[in-house]
Amino acid sequence: MELFDVYPLYEVTPVSAKGSVVTDNKGEEYLDFYGGHAVISIGHSHPHYIKRLKEQLDKIGFYSNAVQNPLQVQLAHKLGKLSGCRDYNLFMCNSGAEANENALKMASFQNGKERILAFKNSFHGRTSAAVATTDDEKIQAPINKQQKVTFLPLNDIRALQEEIAKGDVCAVILEAIQGVGGLDEPTTEFYQGMAKLCKENQVILIADEVQSGFGRTGLFFGFQHHGIHPDIITIAKGMGNGFPIGGVLIHNSIKATYGLLGTTFGGNHLACAAALAVLEVIEKENLLHNAAELGMYFKKKAAAISQVKRVKGRGLMVGLEFDFEVSEIRKRLIYRQHIFTGGAKDKHVLRILPALNITKGQLDLFFEKLKQELST
Ligand SMILES: Cc1ncc(COP(=O)(O)O)c(C=O)c1O
Q1: Rounded to an integer, what distance in angstroms lies between the CA atom of residue 195 and that of residue 228?
Q2: 141-153 pLDDT per residue, tens
Q3: CA 157 from chain center: how many Å?
Q4: How remote is the CA of residue 10 from the centroid of ligand 1, in Å?
Q5: pLDDT of res. 376
Q6: Is the domain of 177 the same as that of 238?
Q7: Does the CB atom of residue 266 touch ligand 1 within 6 A?
């Protein structure tokens, strides 16, 4: 058997990693400014993370959701405390798409409606409803197109108002800062207008924090920069620092009943240990502060580069917009400078998503190497 060939691959084979440095099978070191799509939050192979996972594996790795698992309760409490979202309850699953799939399902259970409002350039995952709310026809199979989804321009409050006024809207789903789309962020005015419209019309507001959550923007959640309270929040990526785990934070006003949601693997012992380790490191090492501080430092340095047309994003979720497509420079950064970066749907945007404990020295090194490539 061979692999189902859906990924174009770079010619790099990582075999080990520590912090923000990845080592390949030839012993070459790479600086990781992408964290495998925003997944690495506390750095590769963090000692506390390794210890907690190993200890858990020695005790019990998995049992189903039919029995008591105190780690799930610990995780919910810790997450509520660190995020400030104490009025929510946690449902655990395995990925970002699954988190959004469950969020959309919960919204529809709650108000009995079907039509979803999503935004141009959105990305919410590849499962049924999640991909239907993703603004990319290429990855939607005919079976996904049966869902009722309307895509609106970001920041167009009038368009949102007109759609909600039709009375059939179940939920609005948006990324706090668009990841795959290219780092666009709704304005605070739009956020607040949208939250008010949703509340007045019993429309469920879903904040997709799969990429922007877990401290990446300098606050625990990206929407917290805008003073709103979504009904449902979805999380994944940085939550497990590489261990597959996702979650849905559901506001207290939405009631659970037995059997409404479910999963075999979600919330297993190992996954909980991974997410707890991440939260413990975020708290102990004050990583939200580091993300906010170094994010500002990064943006300032980026803005001083003449070829950079615009710097987008917040904290350590940043996009550098050029007036040329970035695919070549990304290749040169990997092969010549040994730096991983990301692209976006907007081909002019270089996406930067380092671990939250990246250092100032590593940022300086990144800019040194980027400048070298921009001048050749
Ligand atoms: C904002 C956002 N939501 C959802 C997803 C889907 O997550 P997953 O690939 O874990 O299913 C992604 C993945 O890139 C994402 O960026």
Answers
A1: 7
A2: 999 989 999 999 9
A3: 24
A4: 21
A5: 81
A6: yes
A7: no
Q: What is the pLDDT of residues 85-116, one digit of tens each?
A: 999 999 999 999 999 999 999 999 999 999 99
- Does 179 sit in the ligand 1 pocket, CB within 6 Å? yes
Reading the block at residue 354, the tokens are: 């380092």
Task: Identify the domain boundary among 254, 284, 314.
Answer: 284
Please provide the average confidence, as pLDDT, over all residues in the chain.
97
Q: Which residues contact 309 (CB under 8 A, 6 or more apart)?
A: 321, 322, 323, 348
- Ligand 1: atom nearest CA of 209 is 1
- Residue 135 Cα to ligand 1 midpoint, Å, equals 13
Range of the domain at 68: 47-284
Closest CA to 38 of 224, 176, 232: 176
CATH number at residue 347: 3.90.1150.10
Same domain, residue pair 20 and 99 = no
Specify whether 192 is located in the same domain as 321: no
* Cα 375 to averaged position of ligand 1 atoms, centre (Å): 34
- Prediction pTM value: 0.98
**90 and 52 together in one domain:** yes
* Closest CA to ligand 1's atom 7: 96
6 in a domain, yes or no? no
Give yes or no for residue 343 having a pLDDT over 90.
yes
Domain end marker among 284, 300, 318:
284
The CB of 341 under 6 Å from ligand 1? The reply is no
d(CA 177, CA 195): 16
Do 137 and 131 contact (CB within 8 A), yes or no?
no
H or E segment to which residue 310 belongs: strand 310-314
